[in-house]
Amino acid sequence: MSFDDILSGSQQELRRGTVVLACLLLLREPGYGYALLEQLRDLGFTVDANTLYPLLRRLEGQGMLVSEWNTKEARPRKFYRISPDGERLAAELLADWERIDASVRRLGQGGQEP
Amino acid sequence: MSTLTDRYVWGVLRAVPTAQRADLEPEIRALVADAVEARTAAGVVPAEAERAAIAELGDPERLAAQYTDKTLFLIGPRYFPDWKRLLTLLLSIVVPIVAIATMGASYLAGKEIWEIVASGLGTAFMVGVNLTFWITVVFAVMERREIADFDEELAWTPDKLPEPPATAATESLAGIAFSIAALVIAAIALVWQQTAMPITIDGASYPLFNPDLWSFWLPWFLVVLGLQIAFHLALYLRGSWTWAFAAVNTILNLAFLVPAVWLWSEGMLFDPGLVEALEGMGLATAFRPSGVVVAIVFIAVTGWDIVDGFRKAARAGQAARLIPAA
Q: What average pLDDT is seen over chain B?
């Protein structure tokens, strides 16, 4: 196994949970699947279409997102939006993320406090 | 002709349960359409755009599996080590025995050396493939059943922890493998005695058992042997005997013993031609009493196996109760 393989494997592990949080935060503004995929990619999240779409549906099933078919435009599109439960989840995850970030920074600087 | 999109949508839908299809179809169509639109807006030719959009969504079965949380493996990490160990052990026991037995029979039948080798290799291959296939089927079914159970009982509590197997009553892998090997060899022998007609008297070949029994009883015995193999696999995976295992063991043993003894006592078990030929040799007087001895031994062995199952179940129960005190 080359270093690059190890790196990409580890990065995948590290990023796995972050897509959920990113989706929740982005969907404070209603959005549809493909637009969300592009937004995520522009922000530097590597996510596959065939992972993202089922994920959105799963989050909807769990009540973290709500969806609505928009039929006003030329083609119907399914728009997702964050739900109040989703907001709570996002807030918790964000707090967790900040805690992890702080801890990792402390470790990275070698300044382990007792 | 249907478009690439139609074909893709169908590829996904056929891999999800019917109830979800109506709901999922417009969604997938919209996803493809959006991706196509983004590309045509950037100046890509529509046909190229459709192809690229679908390529981006990837294998329809994989997408469907993501939507339905289905497993895409046959035997997962939970059972893989058991599957591999048991299969290796069984193959290494059964295949050589069967190959040597076949070659021995060919040799006794006065076949040429190349025929002897070919019969050995052929049988080894057939047995190996069949054994691998059926063991894998049993494990794959276990894997899926477990996942279904897990979904139903998401709420896990400490009460659901399984009883630890009593060390004294634990079934060893070698013991189970030998039991299964014996059953597989018995099943093969049952078929072999008919196809090879191994008994030759005065130039005529006979099978051991009455060929008329292939209409029901011999297939019945094969099925019971198959169920016993599945039983031993389940026993090994469970780790120890329980009362339920002992009860099933009793039923399976009786399902074999009772018809066998009944057929024998009615004089229907052995090939009539063979019996006649033996009588012609003046062996009939010897044949009957030795049959009685075999029948008694058979009944005794089966009876012991049944009792032993209950003994082990009792011991496993006791040992499980003793653990908290220890």
A: 81
For residue B39, the chain A residue with the least C-alpha distance is A34
Range of the domain at A73: 18-108
Q: Most A CBs within 10 Å: which of B12, B24, B34, as the mutation test of the A interface?
A: B34
Q: What is the pTM of this model?
A: 0.50
The verdict on B169 and B287 lying in the same domain is yes
Tally of structural domains, chain B: 3
B174 closest CA partner among B79, B84, B87, B89: B89
Sign of CA pseudo-dihedral B183, B185, B187, B189: negative
* Tens digits of residue pLDDT in B19-60: 888 888 888 888 888 888 888 888 888 888 888 888 888 888
Compute the distance between CA of residue B109 and CA of residue B141 in angstroms, rounded to an integer.
42
Is residue B326 over pLDDT 50?
A: no
Choose among A51, A69, A78: nearest Cβ to B66: A51
The boundaries of the domain holding residue B310 are: 162-326
| A34 contacts B35? CB cut-off 8 A | yes
Complex ipTM tops 0.85: no
DSSP designation for A28:
T
Residue A11 covered by a domain? no
Put simply, the answer to whether A33 touches B34 (Cβ < 8 Å) is yes
Of the partner residues A33, A48, A51, the one whose CB lies closest to the CB of residue B31: A33
